[in-house]
Specification:
It contains five helices and five strands, in the order H-E-H-H-E-E-H-E-H-E. By secondary structure, the protein is of the alpha+beta class. It has a single domain, classed as Rossmann fold (3-Layer(aba) Sandwich). Belongs to the RecF family.
């Protein structure tokens, strides 16, 4: 368990570092720029920590410390505000910023853009943010988006629209 937990923590730290770098390169536009960090370090000797805590963990019925206790902290850079204190639209814009930065990271590492599946992506975004989203998505390879209202895709430009009815 300690070996896998340590590997997971290391991979998570590398991913957060890579995403942070990708987010720093994002242009300023109507999208909220997120900054990310991990809330606590994972001890370097996880096996020793698990041994020391074995009694407490047995009593709790779970591991009380380790990489599973780590959270991702997201901050709205321009407002210097934690994501949980942002509006629904700002939170969605922050999340989309993370998704798009991750797609850039994957594309850079694989040499090809990933297929993006974005469910209800335009909901909660004002028209300006929707336009900024569509601009960022242009030329990214294959992007699939869903919405319950076709009007949410007004101004999308060159796209194939498929209506599904019941």
């Amino acid at each position: 368990m300690a070996e896998h937990g340590a590997a997971l923590a290391e991979a998570r730290a590398r991913t957060v570092a890579g995403l942070s770098e990708a987010l720093a390169a994002v242009p300023d536009d109507l999208f909220a720029r997120p900054a990310i960090a991990l809330d606590r370090p994972v001890p370097t000797d996880l096996a020793a920590l698990l041994r020391v805590n074995r009694g407490r963990d047995a009593a709790a019925g779970r591991a009380t410390e380790g990489p599973h206790r780590q959270d991702l902290l997201v901050t709205h850079v321009a407002k210097r505000q934690p994501a949980e204190r942002c509006s629904t639209g700002e939170q969605k814009a922050l999340l989309l910023g993370l998704v798009l930065a991750h797609a850039e990271l994957v594309a850079a590492r694989r040499g090809a853009p990933p297929i993006l599946l974005l469910d209800e992506v335009a909901a909660h975004l004002d028209p300006g943010r929707r336009a900024a989203l569509f601009e960022r998505l242009a030329g990214r390879g294959q992007v699939w988006m869903t919405a319950t209202e076709a009007a949410l895709f007004d101004g999308i430009g060159d796209a194939t629209m498929v209506a599904v009815g019941g």
